[in-house]
Amino acid sequence: MTGNTQGTSGPEAVCTKQARIAELARQLAGRRLESLNHYLDLAWMQEACRRTRKDGAAGVDGVTWEQYSHELPRRLADLLDRAKDGDRYRAPAVRRVYIPKGKGESRPLGIPTLEDKILQRAVVMVLEPIYEQEFLPCSYGFRPGRSPHQALQQIWNAIMRTGGCWLIDADLRKFYDTLDKSVLRELVGQRVGDGVIRRLIGKWLSAGVLEDGEVTYPDRGTPQGGVMTPRTQ
C-alpha cells in the first residue's frame, strides 16, 4: 500500500463486516442473500488489494504492481465505481500459460490482470463468509484458516481411534476445462441474489482467453489460476 492509505482500519472493519455476512448467512440458511454489494466500499477494496499477491505474473495488459500502485487510492475508487456501475466494467481476457503437471503433462493456467485479481479478491471476501456456513467440519480444501496439515492430522486421529480405515484418493479429470457455466450460475444463485455480485461473476465466466495472440470464448470451462478459482487461494 502507499502512504495515502495509512490510518484506515481496513482489516478490522472488513473482519467485522464479514462476521455480519456470516451471521446473516446462518440466519437465512438455504435462502438467497439479496443485498451484499453495499459491503464493498473503499476500505474493503484496500483490504482486498492488501491480500492480493503483488509478485504474480502480469495479465494481458502487462501492468505490474509497481505500475498499478501509483495513485492507488484513486485507482481503487475508480475500480469500485466501475464494478458497481455494471456497464463500465468489462472483465479482461485472461492470459493462458502452461505449467508442468508431471508425467509429461501440463496444466493450463489463466492469469488475470492485477486489477482483476484485486476485484476478484474483493468478491471472494464477500462469498467466503456465506459458503463457510455450507461446509461440513470434515471439509478442509481451500478454506480460510484450514490447511492440508490439519486434514492429515484429522485422518491420523481417526486411524488411531479406529485402529485402521480405508483411504480413497480421487480426482475429477479436467473439471475446470469442462465446467458447465450455466450450472455454476444456478448454484451461485441459490445463495447469492445480489445483482452486482452475480453480474461480476457472470462477466468473469464470459471473459475470453488469450493464447498465442488470439482471444477465444469457450462455451464450457473456466481457466484455473484466478483468485476466484481455489488453486490460488
What does this structure look like?
- With 233 residues, the chain is of the alpha+beta class.
- It has nine helices and four strands.
- The protein has a four-stranded mixed sheet, with no helix packed on it.
- α1 (10-27) packs across α2 (42-51) and α8 runs antiparallel to α9.
- It is globular.
Average pLDDT figure = 89
Please give the count of helices.
Answer: 9
Q: Given the helix and strand composition, which structural class is it? A: alpha+beta
User: In terms of per-residue confidence, which ranges show pLDDT below 50 for 5 or more consecutive residues?
Assistant: 1-8
Binned, the helix content reads 40-55%
Give a count of the beta strands, DSSP E runs of length 2 or more: 4
Give the spatial strand order of the biggest sheet.
Answer: 2-1-3-4
Distance between the termini: 20 Å
Helix and strand run:
HHHHEEHHHHHEE
Strand content: 5-15%
Shape: globular
Radius of gyration: 19 Å
Q: Could you give a short account of the major beta sheet?
A: 4 strands, mixed
